[in-house]
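Could you help me review a protein record that somebody else here produced? Here is the record exactly as it was handed to me:
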Amino acid sequence: MQTINRTQLFRASCLSLLVTSLSFGIRAGILGDLGTKFELNASQLGTITATAFWGFPLAVVIGGIIVDIIGMKRLLLMAFIFHLVGILLTIFATGYWTLFFSTLVIGIANGTVEAACNPLVTSLYTENKTTKLSHFHLWFPGGIVIGTLIVTLFKLIGLNWQVQVGVMLVPTAIYGYLFSRLDFPVTERVAAGVSTAGMYKAVASPLFIFMFVCMFGTAITELFTGQWIDVLLKNVTNNALLLLTLETGVMVLGRAFAKPILKLFSPQVVILMSTIVASIGLFMLSTMTGDIIFLAAIIFGMGVCFFWPTMLGFVSENIPKSGALGLNLMGGAGMFAVSIWTIIMGKYYDSIVISKLPAGSDPAKYLTAAPGTDMAKALESAKSLAGPDVLHFTLAIPLVLIVAFTGLVFYMRAKKKTAPLATVVV
């Protein structure tokens, strides 16, 4: 007989998401080191970073299709194997291609975690989906905070980037052990007896398609900016990594206190307010310098903190028949959009840097110039101008979303409340 311990399942889910976020936080912190160690430019670093976002949507969409068939437990044990392999491949990386493939495998692991855990949380807490998704997803920014602090501490004491990556093996081993011992429920859609045809009909609805497209923008605004802050703003401030820590720290606090906020406002209103605040924060990050930029990071963190869990919660509450597939298509859409934007912006960043160098100069010579030389100083000056330009270009996305989510708020006011799925008793 199965005994479903939802508290232990939720805690193990949070730990698996912690590994996912550590991979983002630690990679963001060592991105510059990887570029120096393996002589990689911003375009190459952008492609390596993007592979995690390729692996994620691949895994999350496939996982969303098969999770009702093979069960959430098997999917999470697969995630454990992918994480283990990806971390070890990263530790023993020797150059561009080994970093490329190791990051891809970690991305697949991260997507597999979300493919199983998002429907697991909504199945465990059917009465409180958006709040519990917020509590679950606080471990994503939480892990980024922990990861960036680990990078900062290890750099201070002189430990190399391989050791920093190796830290992820500890929580990976723990969550793999916990999930192997626990019993799992079936997904909410299966428990409610909603057919597969009904699920596919739900994800083809106009409201789902609208949210699917909007997920592109919310994910880019949140994840692209966070992942690239150290590269884009390291020449604007001496504490670029602290900006990421501040931003994600605010996100942790916001998601921890999601319950009272969601009692006051509907998910769609929360998303709209978040987009407005995120736009203000991103504008400040792209235009300001000096200590005020830390305030900008806090405001930006306040804006993006509810994006991911509230978008998923909105879909689960208002289009419940979309089931695990709906949640995972949303996650896949977000990560895929970030992967494409990361590559585009990596090339855009390089082009801006080159344009700021003396006409007719060879960029390769500037990249290999000794610190303190005129060429090195010219390169640093070019980079200090390029980073804010990339953020300013990205600002267009949340500005468009403000219009889209304003329309959503008015649409939902006119729409009847969606009834929750009822569990079929066999």
About this structure: The domain at 9-414 is CATH 1.20.1250.20 (Growth Hormone; Chain: A;). The CA atoms of residues 130 and 310 lie 6 Å apart. The chain has one domain: 9-414. The longest helix spans residues 323-356.
